[in-house]
Design goal:
This protein is α/β, with parallel strands linked by helices and about 270 residues long. Helix content is about 35%, strand content about 15%. The longest helix is centred in the last third of the chain and has 18 residues.
Length: about 270
Amino acid sequence: MKSKLKIGIALSGGGVRGISHLGVLKALNEAKIFPTKVSGSSAGAIAGAMYCQGYKPEEVLKIIVETNFFRFMRPAISWKGILKMETVGELFKIYLPHNDFSGLKIKLVVAATNIIKGKVAYFDEGELIKPLMASSCIPGMFEPIMIGKKYLVDGGVLNNMPVEPLDGICDFVIGVNCNQLPAESNIKNMKNMIERSVIMSMNYNVYSRKSKCDYFIEPPGLGKYGVFDIKKAPQLFMAGYEHTMKIIEENPSILELANPKAKHLSL
């Protein structure tokens, strides 16, 4: 029996590292902890949408591996970006055919960045696929997505772990960050330096929201995986699963989230 508590889970962005979110969700579900609302940015929004649609975490992993998600991106001849996301939208339509937030089994909030106004844009109703595309639209790499009059890019630019849509609405909030970065790094080239700088910036806006979470899950060691290294999907999944199982073992109080009579506890 699922808990009557309102449990929110905020999932960060992080490229292919977001696959670790699926392992986290699997471990929580095995502990009978099920979210009533999910929010996410970028990869977290994608993982969240598939989960909220009703796919089991293992099923989502299989879909990602079998479809080779990134092959659906094609070059764009434009000053706005080097890749288009239209074909990614076609892929989403296969697994989210209703293309509407109301068709999801669990409530979802998707965060994107309004690049013109410099503000976070949240989506939780109406068309689903375009907000997902916008939320994972890395600036400079993909063409921005237009929704109405909003010019949108990756949600992680301003809010890489959107807890705000859950704060004050859910009894408990679980934040999950898949962008853990080692304290030291061997900077070999400009690409490494840029990637590390971007992750540091996104992590800053994640950690500034950590205090809003009752539980914060951050699988260690994910920094060794490239943000597009899809071949490491199984390892990323297991990293999220094993770390969450360890947290549950070391902090059994989290199991009270599966109990409607649970008290407000924090790690």
